[in-house]
Amino acid sequence: MDLMDALHAWAAAQTELAALLAEPNRFRLYKLKLEQGTKHPSTVQQRTGTGRQYRSCTVDGAVRISLQLDHYGRTLQQMTDLANAWRLALSPDNLTYPVYMGGEPGVGVKVKSATLDNEFDFDDPEPGLLRRVQLWTFWSFEV
C-alpha cells in the first residue's frame, strides 16, 4: 500500500473529514484530478516529491514524501472548513505519531510525522470553484 492509498483509508475513518467528504459508496479524496461530475467540497492529492533517508551506517527505510492536497469548495466557507479539518486531523496536537494509516502493522503505512509546510488560495473561475492548496511533508516507511 502506498501513502496516498493509506491516507485515503485513514481519512475516510476520521469523523470530521468524513462529515465533509463522505457520501454513499464514495469518499471525495481523489488522486491527481477531480472525477467528472464530482460534488463539493472535495480534495485531490498528488505526490510532489520523494526523498529517501540514508545514514552513514545504515538505511532505516524512512522516506520523505511531499504531498499536495488541493481542497475545493463552491464557497470560501466550504473550502476553508475542509482545509482546516485536514490541518486539524493531521496535527500532532490531535494525532499521536507514529500512526499506521490504512490498516494495522504489516498492512498499513507507518507514518512518523506529517507537517504542513505551506498553504495558499486560488480561484478556479472556469469550473466556479475555490481551492486551497496545502503542501505537506510526510515521513513514512516504504512497504
Instruction: Specify the number of helices.
Output: 3
Helix content bin:
10-25%
Overall shape: it is globular
Tally of discrete structural domains: 1
Low-pLDDT runs of 5+ residues are: none
CATH names the topology as: STM4215-like
Instruction: Write down the oligomeric state.
Output: single chain
Lateral arrangement of strands in the main beta sheet: 3-4-5-8-7-6
Alpha-beta classification: alpha+beta
Q: Regarding CATH, which class? A: Alpha Beta
Q: What is the CA–CA distance across the termini?
A: 7 Å
Number of strands: 8
Residue share in β-strands: 35-45%
Per CATH, which architecture? Answer: 2-Layer Sandwich
What would your notes on this structure say?
The chain is of the alpha+beta class and 143 residues long. It has a single domain (3-25, 39-141), classed as STM4215-like. It has 3 helices and 8 strands. It has helices at 3-12, 15-21, 76-90, and strands spanning 22-23, 26-27, 29-31, 42-52, 62-73, 99-101, 109-124, 129-141. Strands 3-4-5-8-7-6 form a 6-stranded mixed beta sheet. The chain has a two-stranded antiparallel ribbon with strand order 1-2. α2 (15-21) packs antiparallel against α3. The protein is globular and about 55 Å long. The chain starts with a helix and ends with a strand. The mean pLDDT is 91.
